[in-house]
Task: structure prediction
Amino acid sequence: MFEKVLIANRGEVALRIHRACREMGIRTVAVHSEADANAMHVRLADEAVCIGPARSTDSYLNKSAIISAALITGADAIHPGYGFLSENADFAEMVEEHGITFIGPTADQMRLMGDKITARQAAIKAGLPVTPGSPALESVEHAIEWAHKIGYPVIVKAKDGGGGKGMKTAFNDEEMREAFTMAKAEAKASFPSDVVYMEKYLQKPRHIEMQILADKYGHVVHLGERDCSIQRKNQKLIEESPSPALNDKQRKEIGDIVRKAIEQIGYTNAGTLEFLYEDGKFYFLEMNTRLQVEHPITEAVSGIDIVREQIRIASGAELGYTQDDIKFSGHAIECRINAENPETFTPCPGKVTEWHAPGGLGVRVDSEIYSGYSIPPFYDSMIAKLIVSGKTRNATLMRLRRALEEFVIEGVPNTIPLHQEIISQAEFIDGQYNIHWLENYMKNRHK
Ligand code: MV4
Result:
């Protein structure tokens, strides 16, 4: 096992990784920007190295500064967390070239699954269900020809797209002309490649993702699904596991398909397969080759410490258990709490004058915040994750209501009131929502 792990991240996830290391008897190295000298993960780590100025590009994205910090402190491994360099294959390769273990998949696996078109090809080959789709589109005529083959509505997507950018829907030939031209122009402006392709457009899907773990000896398990449909502008607000839309049979079916696919692809470490789910069918979208923000809800229902497993797998350990050993129990919901104006969603950094996190049975708060902490204005506005679990979905909702009520955050506006509002809506309580529900709700509530 590793003796020392460098944590190449900040905020709550840096703390999350530190905690896993500590429980495994592994020493930790924090790296931080000049703006993060007072961060909680820096205080708790065994050692800390300042890697550059506040701007992420000068610090948390500075590959050579991070690798130098690992070499100077003698770290055996680097955990990248999420965001920043976590899905950067060149970084993973550089880390390994310096004799340090990257806690994650290999650079080649990250490259394969990081490109939308190669990931889709790999997924099809591995037996994952996908939406009907086209190859790269050469012209408007070519696009219309494929739209007729697939059948309207369709969605044009950029090969290198992300976060919904460069995506255009079309319901007929006239809209297709515009969608193709617009998507290509947006892709050209925003991404390395302006190649676009199309898929059948699903109009009211849920976003359901499957968590997997795979060791270096071909053993693969899935840890069930997360329903991440409560989102706005590609930002998730609330996630839950299990999904209110699935039954045990459907979970086992998609779980078996995903496990076989990951075995065939030869992927290692932790990963998430994102699907759209509509009318009882799954459609693979993309794979995230990193730890995800919402991993704690999976930990709550599976009893498995995902970060610990990532570290074990990277060190060459075997999983040591099979799918049948994993028993799912109860329900878990996560609320992402951001320091932002709940109406305009603009970030509101500043000093947290008062901080009291809720507690009690089934309540977990992952946060770097403490009373008197000043949130720097340079990074993401998420300041806490509230993860609540209980025996049933209804018991979990009651507990979540109680925990949100107990939470005290003063000094910065935050999204707690919005969470309280969302979880009291009938559609949320009934689990009857899709990826468009929150945006529609927000649009209409002021009327
Ligand atoms: C889709 C889709 C409907 N049909 N593909 C948005 C982000 C990108 N990763 C994929 N996205 C979508 N792809 C087909 N064929 C709808 C979306 C989509 C979406 C997906 C997941 C979560 C939130 C979303 C919000 C709007 C659109």
Observations:
- Residues 132-200 form a domain with the Dna Ligase; domain 1 fold (CATH 3.30.1490.20).
- The mean pLDDT is 96.
- Residues 131, 155, 164, 199-202, 205, 207, 231, 234, 276, 285-286, 435 surround MV4 (CB under 6 Å).
- DSSP finds 15 helices and 20 strands in the chain.
